[in-house]
Design a protein that fits this description.
Transcription Regulator spoIIAA; single chain; six-stranded mixed β-sheet; two-stranded antiparallel sheet; elongated; mainly alpha; about 600 residues; 8 strands; 24 helices
């Protein structure tokens, strides 16, 4: 049994049943169910894991806030409140939520051009994005739309996340080198960074601090039980403070944090901001739920517990709403902090509660503890996370097995890098829809024949020696029939008739792959029946599913063709043709 599993073996199936059977408000607060089942033996593990988790929550929260164009303190606000909200409303017992590198580029794309350099305006914009994202997730979860993220194929998700990772990495390079740039867009940023480096604007001390921090994080990344980020950031902070590098070498530091806890505040924005904030919030909702649902399923499988994807969407939405109304910004699950919690022995979401309370205690008791934290070290934290977002190994596999999907992924990456994060996700969705429609728009079709030694009827293109039944064309269509492919279906079918080596008396459509028929394709079939009738060719259909037959009945096609035109299998259709027309076709050939 996995030690991280919070449920005893006999309780797992019961837990799934109870989770599905809950009604009313209790269904939306699975944390209460966890509390009722809580075992005292878990408490020590959750407290220790929460304290270990805190060592990552603080530097990462601050780093992602600054990377998103916000003051660092708001990264801690966006850590405290969402963890508490998710502990009550989230279905996963081990997931850790908070600011995440995958959202940085989207938040920055909205905040940077609209805030005009005003920190409070940036906070309001980011807070409203969190509220929009939360509302979208909650509505989608209540409407049971938890499946929507599955519409983006794996290559497209890889392409989008690679583009996000590249955008985030580029955005942090100026802080790593110790200068600022005035540019907009990843490609322009690269040019501005190269120009600034060539002009000698690099602060060498700042760069050395950031590069050393990045090197330590990457070197210790393989040791799960070693807090690499804490060691690297603490070392950089101590070095800058002891050597007074802020005053002597111009190293930029975080400075003193405000003392106190996040307060309830409505993030007011102007009417001109509504459209970009709505777009950004919607993009955040899609990204955050895609990440959260994947991570949630991984840990649900590992701990062998049931997680409702719709409840996951609601829990994520409530956490984002809480962040937006308590001076935070959009959040998601964390693929770097969740494994830390698991490795530290986390049993339930009390781990996140302990982490949130520890961060809150830091703000109340010791807000000046991080005043010498160098911004280049924070940039190194974000860069290390961005590097972890890149996906190359599976893309190499995709390149080997299906190159057009590989190039789709590359197109998504380029789209994000050239046009920006929000436009990039729009491009990814458009490409996903086109990819989905393409197989149905231009599907595979085949003329079938009999292959010696193999039962059934098979594609004559793959088996050139397949025997054709004189006067009969067996035609298979590998897609639903709908408006976009109806004309192509008719053209290919008539081409198959024209290519027959013998005069055609009967045409049988092997319709087992046809899962649907719409009005446009039904009208096409009526026209096709007329065309074939004029050529004295009978149209028959084999292996059509009953739901599709029901549609043909509503369209009047079933009655027009007659029940005798429909056969349960291709073999019965062939038998009927051979018997009716007295074709010389030996039994052994069938």
């Amino acid at each position: 049994m996995n030690d991280s599993n919070p449920l005893p073996e006999p309780g797992r199936i019961a837990h799934r049943v109870k989770a599905g059977d809950q009604t009313g408000w209790a269904r939306w607060m699975p944390g209460l169910q966890t509390l009722r089942q809580y075992q005292l033996a878990w408490l020590r593990h959750d407290i220790v894991a929460g304290l270990v988790l805190t060592t990552m929550l603080v530097p990462v929260g601050i780093a992602y806030a600054q990377a998103s164009g916000l003051p660092g303190i708001y990264g801690l606000y966006a850590t405290i409140v969402p963890l508490l909200a998710y502990a009550l409303c989230g279905p996963s017992r081990i997931l850790v939520l908070g600011p995440d590198s995958s959202l940085v580029a989207v938040i920055l794309a909205v905040v940077l051009p609209l805030s005009g350099g005003d920190p409070q305006r940036a906070v309001a914009l980011a807070g409203m994005m969190a509220i929009v994202s939360g509302a979208v997730c909650i509505l989608a979860g209540v409407a049971r739309l938890g499946f929507v993220t599955e519409l983006l194929s794996k290559p497209i998700r890889y392409g989008y996340m690679n583009g996000i990772a590249l955008t985030v990495l580029i955005s942090q390079l100026p802080k790593l080198f110790g200068f600022s740039i005035d540019s907009d867009g990843p490609l322009r940023n690269i040019w501005a960074i190269v120009t600034a480096v060539m002009e000698g604007k690099t602060n060498l001390t700042t760069f050395m601090v950031g590069a050393a921090t990045l090197a330590v994080i990457l070197l210790l990344k393989g040791y799960k039980r070693v807090p690499g980020i804490l060691i690297a950031v603490a070392g950089a902070t101590v070095a800058v403070g002891v050597l007074d590098l802020a005053a002597r070498a111009g190293v930029s530091v975080l400075g003193k944090l405000p003392q106190g806890l996040p307060a309830f505040a409505i993030p007011w924005i102007t009417t001109a901001d509504i459209v970009p904030v709505l777009m950004g919030g919607g993009a955040v909702a899609l990204i955050s739920f895609a990440d959260t649902s994947v991570l949630s399923r991984v840990y649900a499988a590992r701990t062998r517990t049931y997680v409702d994807p719709n409840q996951e969407m609601v829990g994520l939405g409530i956490a984002n709403l809480a962040a937006g109304f308590f001076q935070g910004f959009p959040i998601s699950s964390s693929s770097s902090r969740t494994p830390v919690a698991e490795a530290a022995g986390s049993k339930t979401q009390l781990t996140g509660v302990v982490g949130a309370l520890a961060v809150a205690l830091l703000l109340v008791v010791a807000p000046n503890l991080l005043q010498y934290l160098p911004t280049s070290a924070l940039a190194a934290v974000v860069i290390a996370s961005a590097i972890g977002l890149f996906e190359f190994s599976d893309l190499r596999r995709i390149y080997r097995i299906q190159r057009w999907e590989f190039w789709l992924s590359i197109a998504c990456t380029v789209g994000v890098a050239v046009f920006g994060a929000i436009q990039g996700i729009g491009l990814a969705i458009v490409i996903a829809v086109i990819e989905f429609l393409w197989d149905g728009w231009r599907p595979y079709s085949a003329v079938l024949g009999r292959v010696q030694g193999i039962k059934g009827y098979h594609d004559t293109q793959r088996y050139p020696d397949a025997r054709l039944i004189p006067g009969l064309v067996l035609f298979r269509w590998d897609a639903p029939l709908f408006f976009a492919n109806a004309e192509l279906f008719q053209d290919r079918l008539l081409d198959a008739v024209a290519a027959s080596p013998t005069p055609v008396r009967c045409l049988v459509v092997a319709a087992e792959p046809v899962t649907s028929v719409d009005v446009t394709s039904a009208d096409m079939l009526v026209e096709l029946v007329g065309t074939l009738h004029a050529a004295e060719i009978e149209l028959c259909i084999a292996e059509m599913k009953d739901p599709v037959k029901d549609k043909l009945k509503r369209f009047g096609l079933f009655a027009r063709l007659g029940e005798q035109a429909f056969f349960p299998t291709i073999g019965t259709a062939v038998d009927s043709y051979v018997l009716t027309h007295g074709v010389d076709w030996d039994e052994e050939d069938r």
